[in-house]
């Protein structure tokens, strides 16, 4: 199996050996990383829980005493080396009813600007009917033939 001085069998064998070696190294690294992460989480679990508890208590207090902490103005209170900030979220719309009925009601009120109307090319449908496109081509549409890829599998 040689062609112009290249031994394909030897190359594939070497490829497999290097692939396995890299896989073992990656597994070893993942195991060590997981062990370190687990150790760190175990060592810091109590501190993490205490921090979350303090954060909750601070937020509850800050919510109840906003005027006192901010002096009645602003959205920020500096306390020691920390800063508490109150930020308003953005409003959102939640559709809780039947979308078709809501769309009808929007149209009745002549608020169609609240409704999306999109047209898109359905490429999947075109691929199912390649013959139709090939029989009557459309400018700007082109079928790209599937390419061929080469995969090397080891351990087969």
TrEMBL record:
InterPro entries: Host-nuc_inhib_Gam (IPR009951). Signal peptide: none annotated. GO terms for biological process: DNA protection. SUPFAM superfamilies: Gam-like. One of its GO terms (molecular function) is double-stranded DNA binding. Coiled coil: none annotated. Pfam families: Phage_Mu_Gam. It comes from the Bacteria. This is Host-nuclease inhibitor protein Gam. It comes from Neisseria animalis.
């Amino acid at each position: 199996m040689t062609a112009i001085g290249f031994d394909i069998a030897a190359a594939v064998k070497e490829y497999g050996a290097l692939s396995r070696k890299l896989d073992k190294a990656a597994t070893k690294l993942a195991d060590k990383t997981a062990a370190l992460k687990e150790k760190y989480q175990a060592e810091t679990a109590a501190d993490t829980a205490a921090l979350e508890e303090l954060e909750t208590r601070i937020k509850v207090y800050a919510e109840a005493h906003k005027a006192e902490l901010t002096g009645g103005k602003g959205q920020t209170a500096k306390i020691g080396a920390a800063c508490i900030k109150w930020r308003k979220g953005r409003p959102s719309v939640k559709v809780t009813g039947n979308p078709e009925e809501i769309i009808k009601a929007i149209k009745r009120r002549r608020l169609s600007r609240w409704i999306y109307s999109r047209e898109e090319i359905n490429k999947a449908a075109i691929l199912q009917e390649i013959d139709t496109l090939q029989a009557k081509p459309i400018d700007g549409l082109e079928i790209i033939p599937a390419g061929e890829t080469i995969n090397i599998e080891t351990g087969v």
